Amino acid sequence: MSSLHTAPALQACRECGAGAPAGAHFCPQCRKILPLGRAVDYFRFLGLPRKLHVEPADLERRFRELSRQFHPDYFYNATTQERRASLERSSYLNDAYRTLKQTIGRVEYLLRIEGLAAAGPQDASKQVPPELLQEVFALNEELDEIRELRASGAAAEDINARLVRARAPIEAKRAEHAADVDALSARWDALPDAAPETERRAVLTALRDRLMERSYINNLLAGIERELDK
Q1: I need a surface site. Which of 48, 65, 75, 181 has the fewest CB within 10 A?
Q2: What are the pLDDT digits (tens) for 91-123?
Q3: Which residues contact 156 (CB under 8 A, 6 or more apart)?
Q4: In what helix (H) or strand (E) does residue 19 lie, and over which residues does it extend?
Q5: Full-model pTM
């Protein structure tokens, strides 16, 4: 299990020494802004459960409320520690909002904090995912033929028409993978907190595989776009 699941329950206030919940932004005793605890993930920071479905309006509301609370202007005459804490929390809030507002961003971040970071685009391009072998083989054959046609002086509109046709099944595969990510995200959200670790890992691993395939699909589509631009 990720170490973030076992984050300390309390953090110390540097102003009064009182203990505060790990996800708190202000000390419950002296009301001073707390230093940023790096063990607090984006979900907890925004007061959200570690789920993949997030209501955009709710996320926006939480972001705006915290933006006002952390704004450095409110700490102009505060101590150096408080000013630093407001800047740290404002920066962290912006990062959290940018990450969690996007569906894929949430999935990638969840995988990372759960210890199953998805492969990046470069890693995804090194090995063809088994589920995509047929599409990759067919596309590479088509691109080879298109390059030969271009070299022989074929009309640009004919070449582009073939490229558009070649792109269609790859785009369909991307849509299929997006639906898979949605279904797996719903499965993750439905897991109870006490779900066995093997069950949690199975869903996360499937999500990681879908994201790797998605990166490869995006690389294929980028290759087609490069041919269209020639």
Answers
A1: 65
A2: 999 999 999 999 999 999 999 999 998 665 555
A3: none
A4: strand 19-21
A5: 0.84
